[in-house]
Amino acid sequence: MTGTRLESQVWALLNEAHDLYRDSPRASRWLEHHVERFEEPLRIAVAGPAQVGKSTLINAIVGEGVAPVEVDGAKDAFVWYQDGAVPRAALHSAHESVTDLAVTRLDRWLHVDPPPGTPEDLNEIVVDWPTRTLRHTILIDTPAVGVSATATPTGQSIMDRVAREADAVLYLARRAPGTELNALRIIPETPVSRAAPVHTMVVLSRADEIGGGRIDGLLAAKQLARRHRRDVRMRALCLNVVAVAGLLAEAGRTIREPQYAALANLAAIDRGELDELLLSTDRFLGGADSVATLSVRQDLLNRLGIVGVRLATTLIRQGCGDVGSLASQLVRRSGLAELRESIRQLFVERRGLLKARSALLALEFVLRAEPRPGSDRLMAELDHTVAGAHEFRELRLMAALRSGRTRLPAALEAEAQRLIGMEGTDVSTRLAADEQATGAQLWTLGAQALDRWLEHAENPLFNHAQQGAARTVVRSCEGMLAELAG
After folding, report:
1. Same domain, yes or no, for 135 and 228?
2. What is the mean pLDDT of residues 317-330?
3. Which of 57, 116, 205, 408 is deepest in the core (most CB within 10 A)?
4. What CDD domains does the entry give (predicted)?
5. Taking a C-beta distance cutoff of 8 angstroms, is the pair 187, 159 a contact?
6. DSSP codes joined into one string, 427-473
7. Cα–Cα distance between 480 and 486 in angstroms, integer?
8. Which of 348, 366, 388 finishes a domain?
9. Helix (H, G, I), strand (E, B), or coil: what is residue 269?
10. pLDDT tens, position by position, 101-126
11. 150 band by pLDDT with thresholds 50, 70 and 90
């Protein structure tokens, strides 16, 4: 296997543990499964309480209407969305039986014909959907977790399974911090999980409801997310907090000409009449058919919400003259672009690191569940690997710099982000070196960077957080020099 030092260490530990547990079918299968997971796309679970818009956000990320999948008797099943050559869905039972479902694609929306009988031990539904978005990630739509999940066995079991199955988590909430985040606090504490929540991002998924439904409420939601990023309570739970108006994001990715035409007709009526019509959903639905038929108005509300209809008609009045320009504006204002960029930088580009973390959790589980001669030594090696995993520190610092929790002078911050791998993890990119640079030239650049950041780490004008950030950059520079020496 090729990869980072941490990935190589974890790979070796998994194979050593597999040899140790060769005579235990259950442990052996579990370890083999995690060896295979190293080669899979990144698994991202979308979790949270009921009615926070998990399916809506999945549709926005994918860019098509694939969620939710509703099958009788399968309300509590996990639904997996992965890339495939053709649309396909299958029910998987706990005993590994598979039942194929009839799937049709209607105007870029998924329609699943329910089977005649649902297995009693239904475990999950796996959906294959041909799209570029799912080539590097698998999205997992999870059952709703109650806000009092600390006292709910179902909530506990859902989050336990999320911890086992997913490499990263998008946890949706209306507001944070609050009771909706209880489920993030019930994941069992282990040496690996304490290594920091480098796999979780909190999404304020109903951003259009903040600010009393005003159009500028989206800006208020983004400001609220920025404040939460600096909250010490949130640092212990997640890497980042992002505000997204899920309905706007989904509409921006899926809106078509008929919806645009209906919105354009609304935007063309008298401004005062339109403002009065959009005061509430009741007034909008009770409007005269001469403005738009009831079915058209209901469809617009389902797709955009009342805030989205207000915003879309305002944007059309301001010059969005076609469906493409309106879709672009809705996506930009929804916060989806920021979320996708955070997913790319903090999750997708750190796929190997997150896969290694999942494997460490699995190995830790086996060693604790089935202790035997030799397992203590492996546990000690695991603890040593976790303690020395500088990649986790880099990811935490990356999130702290992105969110503003830690600030450095502008020039230094840009260099720090580059050196810890925000622009790419290879040595040449970290050192801003030419692609043709020799090993000796890279060594010189790395040594110079190390000297500079050693001074920053001792700068008496830096506060504790800034000095800690500088020490992390120092360790990154030392790691690059060690790699070049090797």
Report:
1. yes
2. 95
3. 205
4. Ras_like_GTPase (cd00882)
5. yes
6. HHHHTT--TT--HHHHHHHHHHHHHHHHHHHT-TTS-HHHHHHHHHH
7. 10
8. 348
9. coil
10. 778 776 666 777 766 665 566 778 89
11. very low
Q: Which residue has the higher pLDDT, 402 or 285?
A: 285
Question: Number of structural domains, the chain?
Answer: 3
3-state secondary structure of 482: helix
Q: Which helix (H) or strand (E) holds 390?
A: helix 390-403
Does residue 240 share a domain with residue 261?
no
Residue 446 lies in a domain: yes
208 and 113 share a domain? yes
CA R_g for the chain:
25
CA distance 60 to 66: 10
- Domain residues for the domain of 279 are 257-319
3, pLDDT greater than 70: no
Q: Is residue 3 part of a domain?
A: no
Find the mean pLDDT for residues 210-225.
75
Residues 189 and 88 in one domain: yes
10 Å Cβ neighbour count for 485?
Answer: 9
- How distant is the alpha carbon of residue 14 from its chain centre? 26
Beta strands in 107-220 (DSSP E): 109-113, 122-128, 137-141, 168-173, 200-204
End-to-end CA distance of the chain, in Å? Answer: 17
84 part of a folded domain: yes
**The pLDDT of residue 309:** 94
Torsion of Cα atoms, 73 then 159 then 362 then 357, to 10°: 130
Task: Report the predicted TM-score, pTM, of the whole model to 2 decimal places.
Answer: 0.86
